[in-house]
Input
Amino acid sequence: MHLDAENCYRAFSSRDRRFEGRFVAAVTTTGVYCRPGCPAPPPRRSNLRFYSCPAAAEEAGFRPCLRCRPDASPHTAAWSGTSATVSRALRLISRGDLDGDGMESLAGRLGVTSRHLRRLFAEHLGASPASIARTRRAHFARRLIDETRLPMGEVARCSGFTSIRRFNHAIRNTFRRSPRQLRREGAEELPAGAGGEIALRLPYKPPFDWAGIIRFLSDRAIPGVEAVTSNCYRRTIAAGGSAGVLEVRPAREESFLRLRVQVPPARELLGIVERVSRIFDLGADPAPIAAHLRRDPRLAPALRLHPGLRIPGAWDAFELAVRAVLGQQVSVRAATTLAGRLVRALGEPLEAPAGSPPLTHLFPTPAALAEADLTETGLTRARAATIRALAAAVREGELCFDDLGGLEDAIHRLTALPGLGDWTANYIALRALGEPDAFLPTDLGLRRALGRNGSPASARQLAESAEAWRPWRGYAVMALWMED
Output
């Protein structure tokens, strides 16, 4: 990925933290790399090298700065705007696919050769897929070392390492210190707590519209599975064969969310963190998105009301897809009621319901929904058939949400299922697949928002107006929905 060195130097020397995540600066005299805003005295221009992401800097032999901790920053914005193949590969790597199956398998799932995939990564990110995966594991391990008191063996397992030896080697190679040295040097350590509870910080780029996203999630919370208040999001999860509960709260006057997970430590912990990050869209950089969308005066009022707008994601793509089908042509409240009935009838109950209001069930699995008589829960025959077809396709492996390509491919494959129209497919792409340009031109709420003299705009007029919002039409959708 090409970076303009002079522009990077000006941004870095200004210590403007708004550039965090867009690049890192490596210092040749010290062998460390820093993020913009590092409090250390700025080095000479001749001693600086700039890289698009931490993995590229580490592949060049640099280690993270111990003062500004670039390994603890939100996801790099350099990943945005890459090729569709690289974006899909990054999603699969973040899920841990490269850890188990290897490079050839990852490339095969993307429909390219491993050689071509390496070339794309070098072009767009300046680092190999293996380096990205290794950096991801090492940086997450560092967070567990700093923020929990888990034994080192559990830290290694939770961060995806297959052996203590590989874990020790990766930490020493990345940070030039042993895991135990890092724990002794940690500025702050938060205890893991009793009963398998783990507490972590999830950083983001401010501002962050907590009130807006929590209201959206609250209106759509599935009874028994999710519970949402003004300052807390809770839900049931299944990980590593165990059921548990997680909760997310905002941190006062700090740029991170607090995550607590009540589930036995397992290799799935890194995946749990990635999923929660998607729910709250923590990888977004709100400043350029808002600057682009504010050019349309029709969006400006909503963006002023919701600084730091995010797209509420989903814990599980299948769960969100079922929820989207339930929401076809009915109110949000009615869809939530139907979802609660499905959960009570077919969801696996928790051994000990947690919290108040109590979380009682896991969301039903594809296998449970594929064969059930869903009309007994109040669904119409047509909608029940759609959910059964969707569940069967996922159960049989005919539909894998992680294997869907770009937006167009996802829409094409989803609408091929009976009962899934363009609105539903785009809604799934927006919230479950994290497609920032997903758009719903037939949505009545959007058409009313852009209508005139009390008359809704036509779908065609809405689509034409939305061309100027690319590549962030999804954020424009959220702005208009939240204004409604």
Observations:
- The CA atoms of residues 242 and 263 lie 7 Å apart.
- Residues 77-81 have pLDDT under 50 and may be disordered.
